[in-house]
Amino acid sequence: MTIRTQGYATHSATGELSPFSFERRDPRPSDVVIDILYCGICHSDIHSARNEWGWTTYPFIPGHEIIGRVKNVGGKVTKFKAGDLVGVGCLVDSCRTCASCKDGLEQYCENGFTGTYGGEDRIGGTPHPKTFGGYSDKITVDERFVLSIPQNLDAAAAAPLLCAGITTYSPLKHWNIGPGQKVGIIGLGGLGHMGVKFAHAMGAKVVMITTSPEKGEDARKLGADEVLLSTNAQAMEAAQSSFDFLLNTIPVGHDADPYMKLLKRDGTMVVVGAVEPLKQVNGIPFIMGRRSMAGSLIGGLPETQEMLDFCGKYNIVCDIEKIAIRDVNQAYDRTVKGDVKYRFVIDMATLKS
Ligand code: NAP
Ligand code: ZN
Ligand code: ZN
Fold it and tell me: Strand 66-73 and strand 31-40: pairing?
């Protein structure tokens, strides 16, 4: 027996997402079956659906910002019960034995994590060899990879915390961002708007670094103290050597030099957006000022729960536009154009209509 599931899939890199029926596995002893309420649209869903990173196989069901209610649980589940509000992010499994997994950094699993979509299911006998994501009405996930959602948070607006939230929270925590530091968030999209909220909540002075002058007012409302237009060469030059830390969410390869020069001595720029080659990097900003560039991938399960609890405490959620699933293809085009404030979230109840 398996669980009949409705979702939206794409069948080629140039195809559109359309209704698709498939089977999920029945719960194993440590599994949780979740009725999905909402799923955010991450730019990574678009890169993957369109095979821009070259690893996608079809049919492909995106979605890794999942919020739902527990429907039922396997016999050995201890953390969850039917009715609980829960989340699933980018990971549904990992080896659990390597040094990274033991440290709760499953995203850096040395044997390769299992992604919520497009991953290889680690245990045989499941209906599909590949994992299918959250643009669907149900999902079965091992309880270790399921998160508790604080009761006070709006369920739809909490969905993008599962990827956009943790991807920005994790580097800010790792690099000890706090009061007295000047932090630049580059790119005001799904990730960037959460980066601004978190850096502000952590007490840093926050500068929104954007290509879009019209987003300045929003950036201030989100918590930015200042706005720097990256297309204004004069303003960029005036801001050189003034930042302690930069979080770069630009979704494509780009020239990193103008941003590196914004860092103070010993400053770090963390790239989370460009999962592809950057333009040739100039060594000068690194050498002249001992600056660093680093990368960061989402976050492990313990830190994702910590981030959700932080959001519960400070009442932080995402700014979203809720859509019906039939409008998902249009939402993809609008996301690529930067025409969303600041994350689309699919209301999964619309799968039934
Ligand atoms: P998004 O909503 O599309 O936002 C990206 C923002 O970057 C845009 O709103 C725009 O902001 C800016 N931008 C776009 N093109 C640009 C260009 N050519 N030059 C300079 N700025 C540009 O995307 P997202 O969902 O936040 O995701 C951002 C990237 O992170 C994606 O590539 C995604 O795949 C990746 N990602 C990585 C991780 C990770 O773990 N490392 C996790 C999730 C997502 P302005 O208008 O303000 O300039
Ligand atoms: Zn994502
Ligand atoms: Zn591992």
Answer: antiparallel
What type of residue sits at position 168?
Answer: T
Whose C-alpha lies nearest to ligand 1, atom 25? 43
| Ligand 1 centroid, distance to 341 Cα (angstroms) | 13
Which CATH number fits the domain that encloses residue 276? 3.40.50.720
pLDDT tens, residue by residue, 188-199: 999 999 999 999
Average pLDDT, the chain: 96
* The model's pTM: 0.97
User: CB-based contacts of 54: which residues, under 8 Å, 6+ apart?
Assistant: none
Residue 219's domain comprises 165-295
pLDDT digits (tens, 9 = 90+) for 254-292: 999 999 999 999 999 999 999 889 998 999 999 999 999
- Say if residues 261 and 241 touch (Cβ distance below 8 Å): yes
Q: Which ligand has its closest atom nearest to the C-alpha of 196?
A: 1
5 lines ligand 1 (CB under 6 A): no
Ligand closest to the CA atom of residue 96: 3
